Amino acid sequence: MVILVVVAVLVAVVVRTFVAASFYIPSGSMEHTLDINDRVLVYKLGYDFHAPERGDVVVFKAPKQWAAETGDGGDWIKRVIAVGGDKVAYDDAIGRITVNGKALTEPYIYRSASGVQDPPSEAPFQVTVPKGRLWLMGDHRSNSSDSREHYLQSHNISLSTVPVSSVVGRAFATYWPLGRMTWLSKPTTYDSIPDARAAN
């Protein structure tokens, strides 16, 4: 019995450290994809074999400047909008975020109780994401400290993006509260984004 308990504890530690982990959501930056106090499962091994992809919801270590500005260090969660080499932009005339010239359809963006959806961005921008970095945005655009907000404040692309190496893993499901259990699948709008080289 003692051996079984020890083995069970070791397996749990290995799984928690290297394979998957549970995280809770402390803020409203991803509403209503993820609400405050939701619990999510995060797969930690996947990015050992491939890079984060557009549309993934990822947990990452907050950059020092982001953490310093909000007073909230540790693990953050956002959606990958663009990856290294991508051109990401917002133009009021189009009214949608574009990646490599392809306009995104973003039904996951926050809607208020009265059904009013946040605009994709509060101001126009156009950037090229550096290699090895990610452009991350919260689904609750009016309440998210993310790449867009930091770029609009600083116009510094390095300070506004997150290194791929900072990513802890991909959130793949919510499991609590029970009424909000769901898979966090990648939206199909990201399937038709052209390769960055084709857009340059």
Please explain how this structure is put together:
With 200 residues, the protein is α+β, with helices and mostly antiparallel strands. It is 20% helix and 29% strand. The protein contains 5 helices and 12 strands. It has helices at residues 2-19, 64-70, 147-154, 157-160, 196-199, and strands spanning 20-24, 39-43, 57-61, 75-83, 87-91, 96-99, 102-103, 125-128, 133-137, 162-163, 167-176, 182-183. Strands 1, 2, 3, 4, 9, 10, 11 and 12 form an 8-stranded antiparallel β-sheet that branches. Strands 7-6-5-8 form a 4-stranded antiparallel β-sheet, with helices on one face. The longest helix has 18 residues, at 2-19. Residues 4-15 have low confidence and may be disordered.
Topology (elements, then pairings):
Blueprint: H1 2-19, E1 20-24, E2 39-43, E3 57-61, H2 64-70, E4 75-83, E5 87-91, E6 96-99, E7 102-103, E8 125-128, E9 133-137, H3 147-154, H4 157-160, E10 162-163, E11 167-176, E12 182-183, H5 196-199
Antiparallel strand pairs: 1-2, 2-11, 3-4, 3-11, 4-9, 5-6, 5-8, 6-7, 9-10, 11-12
